[in-house]
User: What shape does this take?
Amino acid sequence: MNWIANFVRPRIKSLMGSGARAETPENLWKKCSSCGEMIFHRDLAVAQNVCPQCGFHMRITPVERFAAIFDSSVFEELPYPEVPSDPLKFRGEKRYADELKSSRTKTARNEALTAARGTIEGMPVMIAVQPFDFLGGSLSMGVGEGIVTAIEAAVAEKRPFILFVSSGGARMQEGILSLMQLPRATIAVDMLHEAGLPYIVVLTDPTYGGVSASYAMLGDIQIAEPGAQIGFAGPRVIAQTIRERLPEGFQRAEYLLEHGMIDMVAHRHELRPTLAKLTHLTMKRSRPRARPVAVPPVVTATATRVVVPSAPPVAGSTAAE
Ligand SMILES: [Zn+2]
Assistant: This one.
């Protein structure tokens, strides 16, 4: 028995072990946090991070968002504006400078706002994405400056401005300098109005705090993804303050739609055709001749690798691009 235990078994293990490990990295399957279904990473990428089982909208990175919305997944990212980093030399439980550094390493992005220019069904647009994965999508000087510069570029290039937002609110580590970005962004939105350009906001899960109390709610058209939680203070705080049970679905996108706070709830797969329709309508430009809507191309990790979902070829569709 000894030679089996000491020689054969380790040998088999070493032969199987390395290969098996290489082929099954942990992130190949993702568990849906809503229904618990295990989803293969490629299926999830094709579905734009929407659970195929229950329709739960998981979070999505700016690059994945750009790739899903822009024509042929082609876009040009705007450079991140330079702002003073950690102006207050803030230190909470951790040093803010360290938190910034680790978020930058983790996301490979400079700030919680990435903007890009491109086209939707031929309409030139500017899109900014404020993602939750970078310090909770919190509003900092960098985010404020990013919004202002992206809007300035949109005005100069006469492009509609679309904001995909998700945020916990102001970035407390930047104190008053963060709060100052709220009126700055609001004034920038006014520049769009003066130029006669539409400002469309897509609220994604979750959008809270100062951000939801200012520019995230100032859209000419307010869209929300299904199930997104949107509010100012969180439901637990409200329930504790008013000492009452909150209604079913409180602060969810559908509840807000029912109560007139937003204009529409759009499934992630419907966002591209919806935004195409809205931008063409508001810019008073006719769309290319009506045609069957091609399934938007989906990226797996970066926009350089485009996977076109297999759809029956339709004459005049863009699926072959
Ligand atoms: Zn699910």
About this structure: The longest strand covers residues 199-207. DSSP finds eleven helices and eleven strands in the chain. The longest helix spans residues 2-23. Residues 228 and 253 are 5 Å apart (CA to CA).
